[in-house]
Amino acid sequence: MRISSQKYGFLVLLIFPILWFIAPCHRPSLSVKYLSPQKKTHGIHKPQVMSTMRATVQQTLKVVKPIMVTKKPITGCKPAELPDQDLYRKILQDHEKFILKAPKPPSPNTTFVVFVIHSVNNTKVRKEIRETWLNPNESKVIRNGSAQYYFIVGKPRNPENLFESDVLYTNISEIYPNLVLKELIAYLWLVKHKKNGQMLKIDGKDTVANLDRLSSQVKWNEQKISCLLWDPVQPNRNICSPWYVPLKHYYKPVYPRYCGGPAYMIPIRQLKKLLSHASNHSALVVEDVFFTGVLAFKARVKRKNLGEIFRTYCPQRKAKTLKIFQRRAIACSKSKKMVTSVLSRHCYNRKRKEIWDLLKNGTCT
Ligand SMILES: *[C@@H]1O[C@H](CO)[C@@H](O)[C@H](O)[C@H]1NC(C)=O
Ligand SMILES: *[C@@H]1O[C@H](CO)[C@@H](O)[C@H](O)[C@H]1NC(C)=O
Ligand SMILES: *[C@@H]1O[C@H](CO)[C@@H](O)[C@H](O)[C@H]1NC(C)=O
Ligand SMILES: *[C@@H]1O[C@H](CO)[C@@H](O)[C@H](O)[C@H]1NC(C)=O
Ligand SMILES: *[C@@H]1O[C@H](CO)[C@@H](O)[C@H](O)[C@H]1NC(C)=O
Ligand SMILES: *[C@@H]1O[C@H](CO)[C@@H](O)[C@H](O)[C@H]1NC(C)=O
Ligand SMILES: *[C@@H]1O[C@H](CO)[C@@H](O)[C@H](O)[C@H]1NC(C)=O
């Protein structure tokens, strides 16, 4: 049922100024600041069992306050830009129109297709990533072809410069609300060319993965989405927030459970299934909620919480020394084997190379 914003208009006027002061309008996967209250309550330094982890997540979710709907932009803020729904429909009709240059599709033998979501200008960072966690000299599954990677980027300034062979160049301008569209194009391209295996989505700016370990933890024929799974949260109805979602695009009071945006793994067969529901929904700026929450829920694709493997939340933020960082960042099993395969840099403010070194040869003591 839709909430009539007129009917509640006066309430909004009354309540909004109060909420404006007390409500931090952040979502878990997109914001570092969001997690700061957790720092006060829960500092997780040690390897932990999943129940602790869930408790932490729930603690965190309590921070999200309901935010009322406003029709007019609040003075002093720029209303958030939303994904272009016309463009969204056009992509669903024919995604190939929006591909400037496609790389060679993955081999049928490949079991893990890695999509590194990136911005077209970031060639330096792409080089760094290719030299670290995607380096065939460092990763066995990249070397033997059981994992294959692609960078997904937007429209370059100079359309002549499409020379990187591992990049899928889309025709989408690189603004935040378009992220969901850029990913949509890549996902449609993938399901057209490959029927089975897993698609691992990684936020290339922030997140580092140990593919060798990860591919031993998630079976190639797993049919659930694997990720750090968040409990339902309320849509952000603050028109000034970059994560603002208007009622006309999503009217329910809460989102379904969804996977943290920095990294999630979707079985390609299930990806195809959930994309088949896309035309019945509006594209949401919160791409993680959209694909792994709204569409996965509609398509009845199951999700599996592997929060210790996908450590894309921040158990303890900035660690002063390398040693403290190394101890805090990873989860270990009882037999002192490292469990964590994916880490987000924003939690630790560490260099990509340092995160990779830890994921590669860090030890549990
Ligand atoms: C890029 O997208 C626009 C629509 O937004 C389309 O008209 C144009 O043909 C596309 N260009 C290429 C090269 O695909
Ligand atoms: C896939 O693997 C089979 C054997 O396992 C091999 O014969 C074939 O050449 C491989 N195909 C590609 C495209 O690598
Ligand atoms: C890429 O960088 C150039 C300047 O180096 C800038 O003018 C352009 O807007 C950037 N493009 C994107 C898509 O960020
Ligand atoms: C892998 O190692 C070889 C030999 O040492 C080297 O020539 C090559 O550049 C390395 N590849 C990468 C991506 O670092
Ligand atoms: C590549 O290596 C992984 C890890 O050892 C192994 O599980 C997989 O079967 C190998 N794939 C191929 C195609 O050799
Ligand atoms: C989309 O919505 C229409 C009309 O409500 C319905 O008939 C159709 O089955 C829906 N498609 C999917 C894939 O849910
Ligand atoms: C991991 O190995 C690299 C060399 O590949 C080394 O420079 C680094 O210090 C090692 N890191 C740890 C945490 O052992």
From TrEMBL:
Belongs to the glycosyltransferase 31 family. It is a single-pass type II membrane protein. One of its GO terms (cellular component) is Golgi membrane. Residues 1-25 form the signal peptide. It holds the Pfam family Galactosyl_T. This is Hexosyltransferase. It comes from Mesorhabditis belari. It is found in: Golgi apparatus membrane.
